[in-house]
Amino acid sequence: MDASRYVVGIDLGTTNCALAFVDTVVPEGERRVRVLPVPQLVAPGEVAERPALPSFVYLPEAHDEVPETLALPWHDSPPTQVVGTYARQVASRTPGKVVASAKSWLCYENLDRRADVLPYDRTAPPRRISPVTASRLCLEHLRDAWNWQMAREDQSLRLEDQDVMLTVPASFDAVARELTVEAARQAGLNVRLLEEPQAAFYSWLHTQGENWRQNVADGDVILVCDI
């Protein structure tokens, strides 16, 4: 892919997802990492921007919601699932209809991660999707939010055409990594994977500027803590 205008980083998190970006058109010394506010459903019929997208997928039945109240600005027709804040709220009262922690299931070896097994509930939920599909839905929401805000006037700026890096835990094995890439491809994104500790270290280097050389010497070990 040719060099894109934006360099985009996506954290496909276990609990929350986030998207940040840098505009390469801005002179190098003035470039700043910006976080994309993510429009999402916070209540039926109420859309608001949040700095992160909760990694929850609500799978309502036809009688659960008025379909039109689930639509987001970019929807041509009411969706059959909800990702984000409202999905997290619904999880507290109807957990059997909400998928959570899909990212954790991607690295669970004793499960067919392409099979429709989530929500993982003994009461046989009416609707189920796979961990890969749940991950895809989160990425599609971020994609659509980006395209709605950044590419409405210029289709060349669509997220599908940008340089995207997607963070993964250092503990992900080869299968979990491939499934993450698969979910991204299904969302139309060409991504490069970046381990989360490495991403955190890059962030630290960025905030330190040239001063990092005063704090790190040859042979030093850097400890990254994910709290």
Shape: globular
Helical proportion, percent range? 25-40%
Q: Distance between the terminal alpha carbons, to the nearest Å? A: 35 Å
Proportion in β-strands: 15-25%
The beta-strand count equals 11
Query: Which residue ranges are poorly predicted, with pLDDT under 50 across at least 5 consecutive positions?
Result: none
The arrangement of helices and strands along the chain is: EEEEEEEEHEHHEHEHH
What's the overall average pLDDT, rounded? 94
Oligomerization state of this entry? single chain
Number of helical elements: 6
- Biggest sheet layout: 6 strands, mixed
Computed Rg: 19 Å
Secondary structure class reads: alpha+beta
Could you please describe the fold and organization of this structure?
The longest helix has 20 residues, at 131-150. This protein is an alpha+beta fold. It has helices spanning 85-91, 102-106, 131-150, 174-186, 196-208, 212-215, and strands spanning 6-12, 16-23, 34-35, 38-43, 46-50, 53-54, 56-58, 82-83, 98-100, 163-168, 191-195. The mean pLDDT is 94. Strand 10 (163-168), helix 4 (174-186) and strand 11 form a beta-alpha-beta unit. The strands form 3 sheets. Strands 1, 2, 3, 6, 10 and 11 form a 6-stranded mixed β-sheet that branches. Strands 8-7-9 form a 3-stranded antiparallel β-sheet, with helices on both faces. It contains 6 helices and 11 strands.
Quick take:
Helices cover 27% and strands 22% of the residues.
Write the layout of secondary structure elements.
Elements: E1 6-12, E2 16-23, E3 34-35, E4 38-43, E5 46-50, E6 53-54, E7 56-58, E8 82-83, H1 85-91, E9 98-100, H2 102-106, H3 131-150, E10 163-168, H4 174-186, E11 191-195, H5 196-208, H6 212-215
Parallel strand pairs: 1-10, 10-11
Antiparallel strand pairs: 1-2, 2-3, 2-6, 4-5, 7-8, 7-9
Helix pairs in contact: 3-4
